[in-house]
Amino acid sequence: MDQLPVQWNESATRGDLRTMAIRLDSRFSRIDTRIETLEARFKIPKNKVVGYDSRIMSESPVHFIAHFTINDADKYRVYEKGFFPILKAHNGTFVTYDDNVTVLEGTPAAGRTVVIRFESEAACMTWWNSPEYRELAAHRHAGTTTHSISIVHAITK
């Protein structure tokens, strides 16, 4: 363990470093292009996108799934009262919620699971990043512990 393999002891040549730099530059360029596309196509400023992971957004329907524990019912009620008008304004559809899901595998976590449907990931992210929802989400943060929030893409034919 004291000695590194021979390949690590050898200095990199200028050509090796240049090749690595070109590969990295190419990858970052693709990410920049995708973020610019997101900004232009969906009118979402790249510095305002929460949770964007450098993928081009899917045009297929998505389900937004949130799992959380309510710690302060009064603070969460404030969130609930403002939630549906904002969801409706962004054409989201509330599918269901469950306070006692059946876990078939893995470690169950207590709490509520909420499922919402949007026509596309772009529509979901527009809702998620909207100023009115970000302001309302502060009440959810104050009254709950979030375990996970996911977007699941539908399979298109």
Structure notes:
It is a single chain. The chain has helices spanning 6-9, 14-42, 73-89, 121-129, 131-143, and strands at 62-70, 93-98, 112-118, 144-153. A four-stranded antiparallel beta sheet has the order 2-3-1-4. Mean pLDDT is 80; it is low at 1-9 and 52-56. The longest helix has 29 residues, at 14-42. It has five helices and four strands, in the order ααβαββααβ. Helix 3 packs antiparallel against helix 5 (131-143). It has two domains: 6-48, no CATH class; 62-153, Alpha-Beta Plaits (2-Layer Sandwich). It is an alpha+beta fold and 157 residues long.
Which H/E pattern describes the elements? HHEHEEHHE
Biggest sheet, open or closed, and with what strands and sense? 4 strands, antiparallel
What gross morphology would you assign? globular
Q: Give the strand content.
A: 15-25%
Summary?
With 157 residues, the protein is α+β, with helices and mostly antiparallel strands. The chain has helices at residues 6-9, 14-42, 73-89, 121-129, 131-143, and strands at residues 62-70, 93-98, 112-118, 144-153.
